[in-house]
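Section handout, structural biology tutorial.
Before the tutorial, make sure you can parse a SMILES string by hand: atoms, branches in parentheses, ring closures as digits. In the record below the ligand is glutathione, and the chain has 375 residues. In the tutorial you will relate the predicted structure tokens back to the input. Do not try to memorize them.
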Amino acid sequence: MTKIHRLYAMTHSLYSGRARAYLIKRGIPFEELSSGHESFKHEVLPKGKLPTIPTLVTPEGEVIRDGAAIIEHFEVADGRPCQPPGPRQQVISALFDVIGSDGLLRPAMHYRWNYPQDNLHFIRYHFLHSQRDIPERQEKTDYMMNRMRHAAQLFGVIEQSQTLVETLYKAYLEALNHHFERYPYLLGGRPCIGDFGLLAPMYAHLGRDPHPARLMQQYAVRVYRWVERMNRPDQDAPEYIDTGSDFLTGDEVPSSLLAVLRVLAEDFIPETQAAAECINTFLAEHRPEAGTAAVGRLANPLGSADFSVRGHPISALAQPYRFYLLARVQTLYADLPASDQTLVKDMLHACGMADVLWIKLDRQLGREGNLEVWQ
Ligand SMILES: N[C@@H](CCC(=O)N[C@@H](CS)C(=O)NCC(=O)O)C(=O)O
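Predicted structure of the complex:
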């Protein structure tokens, strides 16, 4: 009998899109359940530790909370099928995973919450139906929606920054659309880890909520198709006619993809720098014991990263998770022979992303019992 995994996830959830697409593309049988399901609270949460989605329950009953951990579980077991072989491609793939997980929260939240005339009815349906049909259902729905609306501000979307957020997003969308004119996935004919990470903001929010989905359909058809493609088990790339079904040969990273990173670097680099400073100050002041959780619910008390982009100040929640994933980029780089390091460094210099190799927290992050912890 086929072994079925249970994925606790929701259609409108940003991080769910990443794990779901991975399971679909890898052909791993699963059923999706809402975190509003009775079993989540009683059977899953005690092992998952935090009520976040996605959380996976394996057929053997193992509980894995966190999208990156879910993907890592299968990657380790199956010989890393979604990691490209070459050093440049590996670093690019890992970097897109960080950017997708933590670097596009402002456009995702802005386009969801600041166009209520187009989005509200649609969003409310999803929030409402993630609650069980109990007497407090409406109240709980309002509470959850207000909490996420507020999160948009915590991530740096306020009235004064909205125009900048849109300008940066549109430049990125245009560059990504240009990249997909030649390639169905980031690195050629099949998805890498970075495709799954990038899908997180690009599916539930930017590719599905009415206002930004229309924007994508009208101005970035190729990106819209990639979002669809990432949710299908086959390659779904008929329009490319003669594309291969593997990563690009010769460790090639197309210049069109570096152009996308050049746009993203504009806020990703100063934000990463400022977040590291903020978290390092927190670490110096609080000296958390080894094993202390480095992840919490939103608005955890680490403080905000203050930085500016094109002369506009932005203040955004500093989250250790960005550095948990960034450490993977840095480990990949550190493990390379010197000649390959030079190749990677030159590539990242060319797109304004070289600093991702050096920006570090003063303490490392690990994972214990489904939580990211300070080491
Ligand atoms: N690092 C986690 C983050 C998961 C996460 O924050 N998920 C959101 C939904 S997109 C959530 O469950 N939020 C509920 C909460 O924070 O209470 C992952 O990548 O899976």
